[in-house]
Amino acid sequence: MLRLVIAGALVSTLSGCSGWQSALDPQGPQAKHLADLIWSFAAICTVIWGLVMIALAVALLRRRSERLDPLTTDPSSERTMLGVIGACVAATAVIVMALTVLSYFSQRALFAKSAPAVTMQVTGYQWWWDIRYQEPRPDQSVTTANEIHIPVGEPVLIKLQSADVIHSFWMPSLAGKMDLITGQDNELHFVADRPGIYRGQCAEFCGLQHAKMGMLVIASSREEYQAWRDAQLKPAERPNDAERQKGLDVFLSRPCVMCHTIRGTPAGSRVGPDLTHLASRRYIAAGTLPMSRGNLAAWIVDPHGIKPGVNMPLTKLAPDELEALAGYLAGLQ
Question: 34, 152, 185, 317: which has the fewest Cβ within 10 Å?
């Protein structure tokens, strides 16, 4: 029974050391520097804790000779204790300096810059991420939301801004945290070493739905990344059936058109996320719901029931209008 309890404790403890959102599962050089720093601090602190526990046990278990006069002192013992205290103080100073130097060199490695292969502007809103890929030619820029695509093994530069309150951009498996502060531009450099899907999160309390302000980073080969970019540059395809055409008409005649962009249609507002290729994303509402036609309908009908406090207004639709609108949006690949 004891073995099962120990095994269960170890499994539950170590399960946090891997996964698509773990700082202890580094998938890039910047994240590896941070993971090494974490393990170094943990190892040193563990050794110190062990030594303190041993010293405490020795002090508690050691037998002392009884003194006839409790006020008498032993000069030899006093000198020994002073020497031990002095050694502990010196060791503490050395350890603190060593950890400071280790942190300094790790920080230098984290903030080392190289010419980026991909540059994007990420703006934090309550509670979603606007992502705009920057290119010399404006017609080659891509705009998306809550989902970042990058090529494996190539430097990425993310320019961070906030449109309202302080947010914090954190991709644990790829890089450290960086705050988004209104009126201040911050930058984050990183590289993904392996293909995969990594989850990120806002790491600064930013309001009611802070916990539901997630993002995905999809790292793929240069060819797959370029194919994704080429697809994102295209405008939305026109509906090829009556139901989706009705859905487009509903979108353009309701408050949706006042907040969102769908390139290839008259909808061009930038208040909310760009929906041109909405259905190509894996989640909606900043990682809150998996992408599906049913979840799109649920989000349209009652966004505040799913994400209380969200800025998306309630839209009253007849059942057939809702079905058509959800079908249209689900086809925006």
Answer: 185
Domain that holds residue 284: 242-330
Domain count, the chain: 3
Contact criterion met (CB below 8 Å) for 244 and 173: no
Assess if residue 12 is contained within a domain. no
Of all residues in the chain, what percent carry a pLDDT higher than 70?
91
As a whole number of angstroms, the distance between CA 243 and CA 321 comes to 9
pLDDT confidence of residue 102: 86
Q: Exposure string (b/e) for 275-284, b if CB count within 10 Å is 16 or more?
A: bbbbbebebb
Using CA atoms of 318, 324, 325, 330 in order, give the dihedral in degrees to the nearest 10: 150
| Secondary structure class of 163 (helix, strand, coil) | coil
Cα dist. 14→8, 11, 25, 201 in Å?
A: 10, 5, 11, 21
Cα dihedral 239, 272, 22, 14 in deg (nearest 10): -80
> For 233-243, how does the pLDDT look when each residue is reduced to its tens digit (9 = 90+)?
999 999 989 99
